[in-house]
Structures are given as structure tokens and as C-alpha cells.
């Protein structure tokens, strides 16, 4: 009968550790099925969750509060300002470049169109970055993290590594991002995915 208390302790510990990477989790399905058309979600196999509501002029979530404004009356692109992951953000994004600061670190990106998507190269919060996004893949290094994701239905799925062993991650990008210029889009992705 001493086995029963041990089993009762083992079940919650097993649940807390999670299933093997790649397994479908009901919580994962619930999260993505409930996502609205303007919701950004990053969910890892380790249970990390980054979410934000993305609309034409703002990005708001538990870890981010950014405004996207016309810079200098709209002639010089868009300004992205606010707070992301407890760091102040002040970035100006023209069609093909973004420059500014995240915390005390520089953000400087050169953004080009490549076939059906875009490519951003430079610095995100002071870290060398080179990433691509198109309708099939989200790949490359963003800040301290590297991504190898392939689109599956509404989401991008695959491996992410942020200095340790790669683990499974799922990213949902909202349609609302399509109204932003390329550099503002690349900046926002850099801030949300590079943390």
C-alpha cells in the first residue's frame, strides 16, 4: 500500500515534465484554435508562451506594448515605440531599413524582398541576426535564437534553439502584420521572436 502515495506523487511530476517533443497537447490545440485573426502566438514544447494582439497601429500582450506610428508625417516610414520584454523600444522603420534601440542595445536591420517573402539582416538588440520569412518557412537567427520552421496550415512549426538544445516550437503569425511595411514587420518579428 505504500506504492499508492508514490504513484500519486509521480503522476503530477510526469505531467509537469510534459510529453515527448512533437506530441500533440490539448492545451496547444486549444490555444491555436482560439486564436483570433490578429493574434501572434509563440508556443514551445517546454511550455513557454509569448502572445500579443497585433493591429494596424499597435502590438499589445503580457510582455509587449508597442505603438506603430507614421514617422515624420508618414514620409519616412513607420516608428515602432514602446516596451518589449521590459526593454524600451524606439525604432524607425523605412521600407528597407530599421534603426533604433532596444534597451541600451542597437537594432539595425537591412530588409529586402526575396521571392515571395522577406529577408532581414543586421542587429536585433545588439545580436547579429539574419532571418527569412515567406509563405513556406521562417528560418534563420533572430537575436540569440535560431529558427528552422516550416508552415503547416495556419502555423509555422519546427525547431528553435536559444543557446541550448533545440526544442519544438509553433508560431502563429496574424494577417494584421501584412499591413505594415517590410522593415516594421521585420522589427516586430525580431522583437517577439528574438527575446
Describe what you observe in this structure.
By secondary structure, this protein is of the alpha+beta class. It has one domain. The protein is 18% helix and 49% strand. It is built from 3 helices and 14 strands. It has a 14-stranded antiparallel barrel with strand order 1-2-3-4-5-6-7-8-9-10-11-12-13-14. Strand 9 and strand 10 form a beta hairpin. It is globular and about 40 Å long. The N terminus is likely disordered.
List keywords for this structure.
alpha+beta, 195 residues
Distance between the termini: 48 Å
User: Helicity level, as a percent range?
Assistant: 10-25%
Question: What is the residue-averaged pLDDT?
Answer: 80
Question: In sequence order, what are the helices and strands, one letter per element?
Answer: HHEEEEEEEEEEEEEEH
The count of DSSP E runs of length 2 or more, i.e. the number of strands, is 14
The rough form would be described as globular
Low-confidence stretches: 1-28
- Strand fraction equals over 45%
Task: Count the DSSP helices.
Answer: 3
The count of domains is: 1
Structural class: alpha+beta
**Sheet having the most strands:** 14 strands, antiparallel, barrel
Tell me the radius of gyration: 18 Å
- Strand ordering within the main sheet: 1-2-3-4-5-6-7-8-9-10-11-12-13-14
Amino acid at each position: 500500500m505504500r506504492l499508492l502515495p508514490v504513484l500519486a506523487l509521480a503522476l503530477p511530476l510526469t505531467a509537469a515534465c510534459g510529453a515527448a517533443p512533437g506530441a500533440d497537447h490539448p492545451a496547444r490545440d486549444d490555444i491555436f484554435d482560439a486564436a483570433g485573426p490578429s493574434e501572434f502566438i509563440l508556443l514551445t514544447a517546454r511550455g513557454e508562451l509569448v502572445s500579443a494582439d497585433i493591429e494596424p497601429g499597435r502590438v499589445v500582450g503580457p510582455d509587449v506594448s508597442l505603438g506603430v506610428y507614421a514617422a515624420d508625417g508618414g514620409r519616412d516610414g513607420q516608428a515602432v515605440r514602446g516596451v518589449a520584454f521590459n526593454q524600451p523600444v524606439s525604432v524607425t522603420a523605412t521600407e528597407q531599413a530599421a534603426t533604433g534601440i532596444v534597451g541600451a542595445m542597437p537594432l539595425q536591420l537591412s530588409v529586402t524582398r526575396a521571392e515571395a517573402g522577406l529577408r532581414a539582416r543586421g542587429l536585433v538588440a545588439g545580436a547579429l541576426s539574419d532571418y527569412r520569412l515567406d509563405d513556406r518557412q521562417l528560418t534563420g537567427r533572430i537575436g540569440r535564437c535560431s529558427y528552422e520552421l516550416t508552415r503547416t496550415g495556419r502555423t509555422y512549426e519546427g525547431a528553435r534553439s536559444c543557446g541550448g538544445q533545440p526544442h519544438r516550437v509553433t508560431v502563429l503569425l496574424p494577417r494584421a502584420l501584412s499591413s505594415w511595411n517590410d522593415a516594421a514587420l521585420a522589427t516586430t518579428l525580431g522583437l517577439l521572436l528574438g527575446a
